[in-house]
Design goal:
Rossmann fold; 20 strands; disordered C terminus; Transketolase_bac-like (chains A, B); Transketolase (chains A, B); homodimer; five-stranded parallel sheet; disordered N terminus; 24 helices; transferase (chains A, B); Transketolase_fam (chains A, B); alpha/beta; 3 domains
């Protein structure tokens, strides 16, 4: 196939297929046009331009067996520019994954396996969910890191694969690409090969509108191996050779810069933003098929010889997997450890190893979590813990762990650097690779920096565990820029994200247990300041989300105080104050570490904990947003915090036992006045 | 003062002050130690290391008048590593701003002017709120862009200043630094000078744990002028000369890479992470003062000769401002335009120019906002609109506007590139500079990418306007990665952020009016899909947050439907269905474009719109999180969306007039059953 020349008009048109590879590439291009055309929606241009690269990858480079998409030792492929999903779907179909032509025809339709952007766990062969730009590159760094760690831990005879990722201009403009690439360069992830689709076009038009980076220079500054391929988008052998050269560089990640022509060779559309995000139009599709030597009236056309080519590829993949299976059966490693890695379940002894904390002790929940992690790390062979430069501060510092690096690839301690966003994306990649339990730590307020990755973790059901410490104004002097206020509400609103804010060290232990046993992502929201170990929390049913921590001794409760995290102790002290006040008020204290867990309980349990007839006051040093679901009044915070010692900020902003008691008395009075009706109607 | 040598131990100790500058620098170092020591909290090390740079900047380079911190033509200084706040406070004190020694002594205490991290509008002379890393650099790009735009628009005789920013390792590891620096390089912001404090230390220890970037190479790849100063941290004349060389480069932003030694010359602390985030300890402070030739028993010591030095600086600043005032008084530009720029208020005719849309028309609110912006742009001389590569899609494409660039510095259209995070930070800088009304557009789901900047905008009361379009599953085929679900709740939870989701084009016009007249940030949440212009929305009281859009014709309402955005039309159609159902139900339809606006209304108005005695059903194609505040039941979305045509997704996920009507009937039935009590108790 000939190269595109300087301007579209001058480019020679391929009239006939000189060989099978060329035919296959044009068949891919055909479907890349047909999918969006049929859906009347989608992104044909990049898929067309990268068809040769995808063909080379899927027919000559990637090692995979479509019969077993979960084969642990497969190569991983990530399309970071997820909008070009039709390309990935086409390749998965040709490669023999369980994705039919009918599935391709249902592109972007309700209930199809071929949604607008690739979704892991939805379409076989899709490794990670991409679309939000830059995430795929970050995930790929995680996939490559997982491979290196597992190769070191389990041995190269059973873990020995590579990660390939295609990135677009958009991926590389996003800040996360800086963090991820800088980290990959630092870690020297030699098994990572990225191809940059340098097509000079974004949605707004020419990249020159907004973008002047010397990308090769930038990646060299990160310590990557960089090769500028130039005009090689249609040169199959050249692409293969370049990929193999990159694969041979094992001490550094590689970037291949490929000049491509979006939409090529569609007349009037090539090298234009019009080819990016819209179907080309029936006539242009037909004309382009003519140029490509495809039957213009056929859609989703795949000739048998192309199917045969990919049948051969699949057979090679099956053989590779069989060889691996026999290596695994003679593998001399610990089978129980292998299982623990890949099942994501801890080794026996996990529950017993969880620390128990005695009332009277006092420690921050960020300290308690470290004790839990250290005590159970031996049962979690896949544990890979790290922080965005707050390793000691956030409790993710593992006892006796080596730092992850090229020299110590089995090191369980990752220094992510001050790169929260990459940390989140790398953790998602680690989790979706399989074999790894990624734990990451940063200040709760900086969950905002990695928020896009939390959403994708939830959507992908990626089992990652975030330690978000310094969880309220109680952190003190660092002031409002560092004090979370709206963050609890904003995480609770994410579907599928488990959020747990334990009240003390014992609840923290249970929260860690939940995180380790949950199928999806967990956010543990932990205090900077020391908290007393409370009576009644040992073995507390944190899995229920909320439970009765304390009831009045001598009489049934007339009011419920609901607390989370560091405010539960205030509720307990307020209960004492209320009991001895005049008139005395008998109150129940409910600890509610997890809204999502509580919402999943049966109504009977919910009503047992929060009896409908009792007024309820929630206490949480955070935005009251959302608490109306459970409470009639909220002692919360409708403003940003302030800089002062933590206990001063807490007291000044109203979080004292006295203030809780006063507020409870006021609620009680209102309740009596209105004959026991909920407060929304009485406000 | 002599240079630090290769290792701390070998470094010569300054025994006496050879000159006044050296004394001033050491006085700054003294307070940099005393502030954290007294607060028992804070970051002395960087402040000590950068004392010479700060002294050079504040005494020889920056043009400012402490008597008028809001002088429009002052130079802007940003401490992006905001944790070194004691340095900034010390400089502002010496420079003569309204910040006393007593204020310095109250460092990090309740109610002080010297919080843990610098806060704009809180401490005179602080230009932007910094602390969350990387934000200050992004703000600085905005400040420099504001200057260039205003210089072009208003003339160099009245706008002619520079922006200086100090960045740390943490700033440059953060992804936002990539976006901001890449954009600044592309735009050629020559008036921006950044100094990189290359101290090799982060909280976790040596930067070598996580960081191998060739920073100069990276910034050269962005098109910056880069100078590696090496070991020059204590060389005042060298620093001044380097800054002046950078200032002379006017076609590109400049980065000066300064090797510094954190905590120098504190014994045992220099070049250690221990000097970063904790006081040095009484004894070390005294010993260090001895080394520096300061009276070791004195704290917050400022000798008169240093005060004199800065009195001289202030006098020069005052003279510069006076000269500027006289230039302004003879300035031949349009005074009304000048006022509109700096007051942030539109020119006369704004309200009259707002488009009016007639019922029967149908257009997406993202299209309506473009009509509003185009119609009123002539009244908004400070308007600078841009998008993260979705210019046409998000309605920020200005009619007849030039693209902002070095060649067209007066261009009002900014192409931010696929850099949402930088866009948010740059917009904050533009707003806090003064003179500019920054408007930015991206898809609502990508508000996650710039979320840290929304928080800072709210905290800083930066008047920025975000157009967040494609605001629900109604966007269709792009699927769950692009469909916001939790975003409305997560923005509503941010204190001080105005969030408006208009129901149609007329509400959009009112929302634009609110955004333009509000003192702080606004998020406008806009539809991708066309929405009918509804009867009764022309001139609707969007400023009230919610209002009665329609009441039943013949009887008082027995139930209230509350809708926002694209779901208001569903409520209107459901009201019709319910009216003609058997039995007929007379319902009120409330449009509720803004929770924060409604929450600020008087209780009487709230009760008028939402009578306590009526059951209420909220309808919003988003997470129901938080709706219990206003509604007894919510038709919402507790899952991620799906890829299919927008109307299909809406219908499949339950957003049809029929589903609304059914749900209302069910609520009504429950309500009757329980004798009119709110539903939380009946669930």
């Amino acid at each position: 196939m000939s190269e595109p020349a300087a301007t579209p008009a001058e480019r020679p048109r391929p009239a006939s297929h000189q060989n099978l590879d060329e035919l296959a590439v044009n068949v891919i291009r055909g479907i890349a046009m047909d999918g969006p055309q049929r859906a009347n929606s989608g992104h044909p241009g990049t898929a067309m331009a990268l068809a040769p690269l995808a063909h080379v990858l899927f027919s000559r480079i990637l090692r995979y067996d479509p019969a077993d998409p979960s084969w642990p030792d497969r190569d991983r492929f990530v399309l970071s520019c997820g909008h070009a999903s039709i390309l990935l779907y086409t390749m998965l179909h040709l490669a023999g994954y369980d994705l039919s032509l009918e599935d391709l025809k249902a592109f972007r339709q309700w209930g199809s396996k071929t949604p607008g952007h690739p979704e892991v766990r939805h379409t076989p062969g899709v490794e990670v969910t991409t679309g939000p730009l830059g995430q795929g590159l970050g995930n790929a760094v995680g996939l490559a890191l997982a491979e290196r760690f597992l190769r070191s831990r389990l041995g190269p005879e059973v873990v020995d694969h590579r990660t390939f990722v295609i990135c677009s201009d958009g991926d590389l403009m996003e800040g996360i690409s800086h963090e991820a690439a800088s980290l990959a360069g630092h870690l020297g992830l030699g098994r990572l090969v990225a191809v940059y689709d340098d097509n000079h076009i974004t949605i707004d038009g020419s990249t020159s509108l907004a973008y002047s980076d010397d990308v090769p220079g930038r990646f060299r500054a990160y310590g990557w191996h960089v090769e500028e391929l130039g005009e090689m988008a249609n040169d199959l052998d050249g692409l293969e050779a370049a990929l193999r050269r990159a694969m041979a560089v094992e001490d550094r990640p590689s970037l291949l810069v490929l000049r491509s022509h979006i939409g090529w060779p569609a007349p009037g559309k090539t090298d234009t933003a019009a080819a990016h995000g819209s179907p080309l139009g029936e006539e242009v599709v037909k004309e382009t098929k003519r140029i490509l030597g495809l039957p213009p009236e056929e859609t989703f056309w795949v000739p048998e010889e192309v199917r045969d080519l990919y049948r051969g590829v699949a057979a090679r993949g099956a053989a590779a997997r069989e060889a691996w299976c026999s290596r695994l059966s003679s593998w001399r490693g610990d089978r129980q450890v292998w299982e623990a890695h890949w099942s994501g379940q801890p080794l026996p002894g996990f529950a017993e190893a969880l620390p128990r904390f005695e009332p009277g002790a006092s420690l921050a929940t960020r300290r308690a979590i470290k004790a839990c992690v250290d005590a159970t790390a031996p049962m979690l062979p896949g544990l890979l813990a790290g922080s965005a430069d707050l390793t000691e501060n956030t409790g993710v510092e593992l006892a006796d762990a080596e730092t992850q690096s090229a020299a110590t690839p089995g090191g369980r301690q990752v220094h992510y650097g001050i790169r929260e966003h990459a940390m989140g994306a790398v953790m998602n990649g680690l989790a979706l690779h399989g074999g790894i339990l990624p734990v990451g730590g940063t200040f709760f307020v900086f969950s905002d920096y990695l928020r896009p990755t939390l959403r994708l973790a939830a959507m992908s059901r990626a089992k990652v565990v975030h330690f978000f410490t310094h969880d309220s104004i109680g952190l003190g002097e660092d002031g409002p820029t560092h004090q979370p206020v709206e963050h609890l509400a904003s995480l609770r609103a994410i579907p599928g994200l488990q959020v747990v804010r334990p009240a003390d060290a014992n609840e923290t232990a249970q929260a860690w247990r939940l995180a380790v046993h949950s199928p999806g992502p967990t956010a543990l929201v932990l205090s900077r300041q020391a908290l007393p170990v409370l009576p009644g929390t040992l073995g507390a049913p944190v899995e229920r989300g909320a439970y009765v921590l304390q009831d009045p001794k001598d009489s049934p409760p007339v009011l419920v105080l609901i607390g989370t995290g560091s405010e539960v102790q205030l509720c307990l002290r307020a209960a004492e104050l209320l009991a001895s006040a005049e008139p005395s008020l008998a109150v129940r204290v409910v600890s509610m570490p997890s809204w999502d867990r509580f919402a999943a309980q049966e109504p009977a349990y919910q009503a047992e904990v929060l009896p409908p007839e009792l007024p309820r006051l929630a206490v949480e040093a955070a935005s009251p947003f959302g608490w109306e679901r459970y409470a009639d009044d909220v002692l919360g915070l409708d403003r940003f915090g302030a800089s002062a010692p933590g206990e001063v900020v807490m007291a000044r902003l109203g979080f004292t036992a006295e203030a809780v008691a006063e507020r409870a008395q006021a609620l009680w009075a209102r309740w009596q006045e209105h004959g026991g009706s909920p407060s929304r109607r009485t406000r």
